[in-house]
Design a protein that fits this description.
The chain has 354 residues and is α/β, with parallel strands linked by helices. It has 16 helices and eleven strands. It has a seven-stranded parallel β-sheet with strand order 1-4-5-8-9-10-11. Strands 2-3 form a two-stranded antiparallel ribbon. It has a two-stranded antiparallel ribbon with strand order 6-7. Strand 6 and strand 7 form a beta hairpin. The protein starts with 8 loop residues before the first helix and ends in a 5-residue tail after the last helix.
């Protein structure tokens, strides 16, 4: 599959090569803020129905690109596909988010945990990657992704989302060996999963460590970063003679960006709490940076959006190595016209920095 890329600005920025402007995409860009997504979701019948159909996944991946001149597409899927394929019984209850029928609550269930057969159990994801890549026909690069081992473990132990992470933290502090067992199995699964996405056509991959930021300093390094390091080490770095860059995003991880840069990742995603200029000073030219506009800025006027975009670009400063993004996923309540204002502002205002 060798579709010549018409726009490779995103990949060039991740590898800190010169670009004419700062490329951008948005976390959750294929999502509920778009009326066309809500229509497709209705036809699919459920969120999992959307994820598990390559046709629907392709359709919603393309929707934001048909509306905005974004510089990358991201596979439409969910981070919980991996624990689902491990047999934990993922389901979604209305208004309550994801839940698992069989969470990991005792030693027997933890020791019985096995990595899934990616080829068999997650084939719908790799099929979607191939189909999206074909449909893109070289317009922009395609990003594949996975949750981090720690974030996936949180869901697997808690049985769903959590406010205090009491169950997973109790396990971590009282039975660290069991916690490490879950993380080891999950890290192996994530490596196989991301490499399968790369083989199917993903041109960059991202690790979402959504819950790593709620750990203490030492726990983050032991239970989250060490396993993301393992993943970076195990990833396919080149395919058909082309580099496949990788991005690590720990929400709330601004304190640890030097440690994240030391994993050998190509780029670090930043949430909106960290000044991107300060981050750049700390990590120098070792990695690219991705981020980091507060998603709530998109509730403001187009003029305010433009001014906040300028602040992020100005803080990063001159040169390459910046992929513009939000500091977290876009809110479902965002006006789609405000996203257009942001995209225009980034593409126009960033040229003077390159």
């Amino acid at each position: 599959m060798n579709f010549k890329l018409k726009n490779d600005a995103f990949l060039r920025a991740l590898l800190r090569q010169p670009t004419e402007y700062t490329p951008l995409w948005m976390m959750r860009q294929a999502g509920r803020f778009l009326p066309e997504y809500r229509e497709t979701r209705k036809r699919a019948g459920s969120f999992l129905g959307l994820c598990k159909s390559p046709d629907f996944a392709t359709e919603v991946t393309m929707q934001p690109l048909d509306r905005y001149p974004l510089d990358a597409a991201i596979l439409f899927s969910d981070i919980l596909t991996v624990p689902d394929a491990m047999g934990l019984g993922l389901y979604f209850s209305d208004g309550e988010g994801p839940k698992f029928e069989r969470p990991l609550r005792d030693e027997a269930s933890i020791m019985a945990l096995r990595a899934p057969d990616v080829e068999r159990d997650l084939r719908y994801v790799t099929d979607a990657v191939s189909q999206i890549r074909k449909t893109l026909d070289g317009r922009v690069p395609l990003i594949g992704f996975s949750g981090s081992p720690f974030t996936l473990s949180c869901y697997m132990v808690e049985g769903g989302s959590s406010d205090d992470y009491a169950k997973v933290k109790t396990l971590m502090y009282s039975e660290p060996k069991l916690m490490h067992h879950i993380l080891e199995v999950t890290a192996g699964a994530v490596i196989a999963y991301l490499n399968a996405q790369i083989e199917a056509g993903a041109q960059a991959v991202m690790i979402f460590d959504s819950w790593g930021g709620m750990l203490s300093h030492s726990a983050y390094h032991e239970f989250s970063l060490a396993y993301m390091q393992r993943i970076v080490d195990g990833l396919i770095k080149e395919k058909d003679g082309v580099r496949i860059p990788n991005i690590i995003f720990t929400k709330g991880g601004g304190l640890w960006i030097e440690g994240i840069a030391n994993t050998g990742c190509d780029a670090i995603g930043l949430d909106w709490t960290m000044d991107i200029g300060v981050a750049r000073q700390k990590v120098g030219s070792r990695v690219a940076l991705q981020g980091n506009l507060d998603p709530a800025v998109l509730f403001a006027s187009p003029d305010a959006i433009r001014s906040e975009v300028e602040k992020v670009l100005g803080s990063y400063g001159f040169g390459s190595g910046h992929v513009f993004n939000l500091g977290h996923g876009i809110s479902q309540h965002t006006n789609p016209d405000n996203v257009a204002a942001m995209v225009t502002a980034v593409h126009e205002l960033s040229r003077k920095y390159h």
